[in-house]
Hints:
The structure holds two protein chains of two kinds. In chain A, 72% of the residues lie in helices and 1% in strands. In chain A, helix 18 runs antiparallel to helix 20, helix 25 packs antiparallel against helix 26 and helix 28 packs antiparallel against helix 32. About 3% of the residues of chain A have low confidence. By secondary structure, chain B is of the alpha/beta class. Chain B contains ten helices and ten strands. In chain B, the strands form two sheets. Chain B has a six-stranded mixed beta sheet with strand order 6-7-8-3-9-10, with helices on both faces. In chain B, helix 8 packs across helix 9. Chain B is globular. At the A-B interface, helix 15 and helix 19 of A face helix 2, strand 6 and helix 3 of B.
Amino acid sequence: MKPIGTLPALLRIIGLTLRATGNRIVVNVGRRRARGDDRVRVPTPGKRRGVLTVLGVLIAVGATFQAYMLWTMLANRVVAQLDPLVRVQPTVHDELAGFAPGDALAGSPRHDALLRAIRRVHLGVDVADDTDARREAMRARFARDGVAGFRAVPHRPFGVSPPAPGSGGDFVAVMAVVWSALGATLLALSLGLGRQDLGKVEEHDLWLATLPLPTRALTLARLAGFMLDPIAWVTVLPLATVCLLAAGATGLAGTAMLALAGAAAFIALIAAARLTVETLLRQSLPAAGLKNAQALATVLALLLMVAIYATAFLPEVSALAIAGARAAPTWWTWCAPASLLASVDPPPIATIGAQIAFAAVAVAVALAIAGRALARGFVSHANPYAGARGVRGGGFAPLGVLGKDLLLLRRDRNQLVAAVMVPLVMVGLQLVINRDMARAILGDFRHAATFAFATAAYLLMTTAIASLAVEGQGLWLLFAAPQPLERLLARKAALWAAVAVGYAGIALAILVWLVPALPLGAISDAALALVGAALFAPIAVGIGALACDPMDPNPKRRVAPTSVYLFMLLAMMHANAIYAGGVAVRLTQVALTSLLALALWQKLRDRLPYLLDPVDAPPPRIDVADGVIAVLAFFVVQSLLVMAMTLGGVAPAPAVAIGYACAGVGVSVVVLLALRHAGVPDLLRAIGLRRAAGAPSRWTGFALGIGCGAAAAAVAQAWLALVAAVPALADVAEATASVGLGIDDPWIIGLLVIAAPVCEETIFRGLLLTGLMRMMRPTTAVLANALLFALVHPPIGAPAVFVLGLACAIAHRRSGSLTAPIVAHAIYNAVIVALA
Amino acid sequence: MDTSHDAIIATDGLLKRYGAFTAVDGVTLRVDRGRLFGLLGPNGAGKTTLIRMLMGLLRPSAGSAAIAGIDCFAGRPLVMRHVGYVPDDPYFHDYLTGRELVRFVAGMHGLDRATTEARATALTARLGLADDLGEFAVNYSKGMKKKLALALALMHEPALLILDEPTNGLDPYATREAMDLLRELTARGRTVFFSTHLLDQVERLSDRVAIMSRGRIAAEGTIAELRERAGARSLEGAFFAATGGAAASADAPA
């Protein structure tokens, strides 16, 4: 029997992986079952993870775009710093040509006009940092050289400007530094981050090794697997594109092809380096040493990432990179051949050829080393935890689920460094090295609050998100415990909330100590940061637990990257609220964040009992999440409609009325259809659109609605009287209430009095209140519902709307139908319209 | 037979479907307290799926399962107070020692420190694990892992012990020891419910047997009853008769 050759073996291994991936996608996304066996376990619709797949693609696209922006910024900054002239837009250049150098001197009659032109220079070009110092430098430059000191740079379609003539070589040298830094970052990331254990050999590899395959095929398959690293593609492809554009590439298709080829060659190079380093580490270090090496790689990766960001954002750092590139020997460029993509000659095709050759050599070296190593076995130490006999666990406090987690964290050094040390290192680094950042933080307390919150969010992202995933296949121990899983997770969330608040608190304390005099608003900033740190712990646990697959034998795949990005996105939204100012906006943000945490937690509680069931999902019910989605969709659609109508020439007041009504109808219909599609049993009765058996009669509901509506309207009238009487309130009302007055068109009044109540009640009472009732006491649910209802209305009317919300919620609970709150809401709106 | 026994496990028309494939097909079973009950069946007969439903890990597609009168799926946390569980292939966290795992599980059951130490000492001495408690559990051999899982399952002195292939991976000494322990437990009034495909083990150990085949209970009773009903001289004969013969058992779904 002839043994199989390297290439056929490799193709078979790759084919197997593709088949498995394909089957997973078909089962999770499509309605068909995987080909062949009719006994395949087909998950119920609730168990499919198609949404996560779609979300993952969207996030990948977003991340690629973000990386592109970062590289563009970096390249443009370097190009501008390398240029002996100041780069401005052609129009500004023309304008400057009309001035004489003497105009730049103080006292000249056209001095002010020139300064204005220079100011516009600033906003128009890629030499960022709108500081007085730089503007002064430009004025001095103009005084010395006149317009000859400035270069007109036409706007390029993709935002990357080419280096000035003569500075191309330096640019390539700087790009070599950047490419090297990116390569080192990716290498360190792949070794360090993630919950992988370098000391452990994956079952899949062990199994393949038992087959009579050539070693080379095994190593190549591993290499191919490394090349699929999404982080690498998302960062490398944009950098290759930016380099090509800087070198003057124009054709879209050609550039894309060249960028793909260049990126692939670079990623192959990194994969080869990873394989080599990994093999050497495994061969030479014992388990504990491997963990230390991983921890080191984690810190290195994060430091490198900070360095890359700093190069893009801070002129001092990019100047440092330029100095370094100039000092580096010329052969350095050849160590990162991808940088040649940025060079005008040799042409890109030749560059890519060189790159591929370079990558091929690297792969060959990696194969040789790995092959020699494999001949001696997978790892030098058979058991990653060998030699641990006699570990002392004594003297330990009662080892509950938290004690266990902390113990695991303490023993897994890589995780410990990534989770606990890195935030501290970052805090220190920002304050010590990055003076600009420190100055900014001290100058504006909102930066300080954001910084404190970001530290906490990072901690949660590395720890709390994996709360369920860390259990891995040891999950059966928790399932055998006489406690609901959600209670154990809640305990973990509480622990991480405490640690996150502690981190944010320490960061704030340091900054408060450094700032001489604090403004009063700082208290609210700090509070928002601390509340955010606490609220995002359950959000992190919830997102992580909902998206994770704790039983995946590969620890890297247990935490879905999607959940990490989603968490980052939500955290950024909260950080934005710190800058938004305004107490109302902040309260709304806190309310929405809390609601999000509640909604996630409810989904989690519903799903956890089904965690180990491969096919079944919880029966569809109305969730808080459904209500939240409906409310958000309502506001987005309504504001879009109002904007479109205002642009189309409709007066603001009717535009708002029509927008509210149309958005309400559209969103309620779509959400109800979606819920029906999901199979919520007896949907209309569940939200109260149809009378439930045993509920009070329709007429009782009607009477209740009239009573509640009249009461709420009376309160609103009293509130309006109060607003008119108190001058401070009246001013606010004057400023905000211009919309909504002057309505006399009968059918708009009809919309306000009939259509708006029907839709808003369906969304707020039918969906949101029903969802809330499932997870809190009725009184709390009614109060929370009314509070949210008030928060999403204009602040000046909030107290009255809060009372209306209470009245409608009570009417809904008492009558068990939507008739009562709709009647109440209609009466209220009618009274308000009549008063207006 | 002692008629004062009431059922600790009671299932009624229990069914679990995986897509088009029915793994457990209408199982109605009653296990009385104090029994050593063996669930016998070829590979793929649905034994593990049945046990997972009893553990509340899977939701029955139809029918019901109750332990100590509590629904297994809806009341899982409550059920677990009465149940100790030993999976076929117990997996432990990478960085926890045997002793830490014992304390962790005892803590989850709300045992105080003194009780924990007393029970842990007695159990691990009995199972021959006492010297290895300071070692990370991932370093244990398969047999040691099984013993540790057994010790963990018995920490809260449950009324019912559920074991999936209990002696799988144990050497002859450990097998005998484990069987002695199980017999001793039933003698003290506890119930043991275990699955296996090893006929001799059931024959030596259990006082009542159910034979599962293709998701159904093909036969149930004492060993003598089963032999008699099948007209076979050995349990093996009864097994083949119930599961459809040697040829049928070979092509049972995997």
